[in-house]
């Protein structure tokens, strides 16, 4: 087999991800460099911290919430959310 | 900050990874396409399945062992190990 693995790059290469499809569904695994980012969703996203930590302001929330390694947060489709990254962080984003 | 995130590619692009350094240490997060691979280590590696599954023959072992999402196996430095990938799989590899 020769499946090309797709790498995507965002925010001037400060966020990179690799796409995958398996029994769990469609996901990307990626890394965010230190910084602040705003992401938009087109599907429901299940974001899991794989290494590091994320501080997140979820849609329609005013408070920031911290997520450590192993934690998951969910963002509905067609929303935007803000992320502060204080150490380089790996994540798994599963789409639904 | 403008930290370049490094993407590496192995086995004719069937395995790709993104490097990161944070409080947990030095790691790569990556994806393996369906296939069979033999990896060599230069440091001790803690390999964790992030999504999917890996079937692994560890150094000096004759049996294959399956690792599911969330499972970790350890390979000492300067060893080689074989991996069978039956569905596209994301992993975290922490170096020590």
From TrEMBL, chains A, B:
Organism: Marinomonas alcarazii
Top-level division of the source organism's lineage: Bacteria
An annotated Gene Ontology molecular function: guanosine phosphorylase activity
Function: Catalyzes the phosphorolysis of diverse nucleosides, yielding D-ribose 1-phosphate and the respective free bases. Can use uridine, adenosine, guanosine, cytidine, thymidine, inosine and xanthosine as substrates. Also catalyzes the reverse reactions.
Enzyme Commission numbers on file: 2.4.2.1, 2.4.2.2
Catalytic reaction equation(s): cytidine + phosphate = cytosine + alpha-D-ribose 1-phosphate; thymidine + phosphate = 2-deoxy-alpha-D-ribose 1-phosphate + thymine; a purine D-ribonucleoside + phosphate = a purine nucleobase + alpha-D-ribose 1-phosphate; xanthosine + phosphate = alpha-D-ribose 1-phosphate + xanthine
SUPFAM superfamilies: RmlC-like cupins
UniProt record similarity statement: Belongs to the nucleoside phosphorylase PpnP family.
UniProt enzyme class: transferase
Protein name, UniProt field: Pyrimidine/purine nucleoside phosphorylase
Keyword Glycosyltransferase: yes
């Amino acid at each position: 087999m020769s499946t090309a693995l797709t790498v995507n790059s965002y925010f001037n290469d400060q966020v990179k991800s690799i796409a995958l499809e398996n029994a769990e569904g469609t996901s990307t695994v990626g890394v965010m460099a230190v910084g602040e980012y705003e992401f938009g969703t087109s599907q429901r996203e299940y974001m899991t911290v794989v290494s590091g930590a994320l501080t997140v302001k979820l849609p329609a929330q005013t408070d920031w919430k911290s997520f450590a390694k192993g934690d998951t947060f969910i963002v509905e489709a067609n929303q935007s959310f803000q992320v502060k990254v204080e150490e380089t962080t790996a994540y798994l984003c599963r789409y639904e």
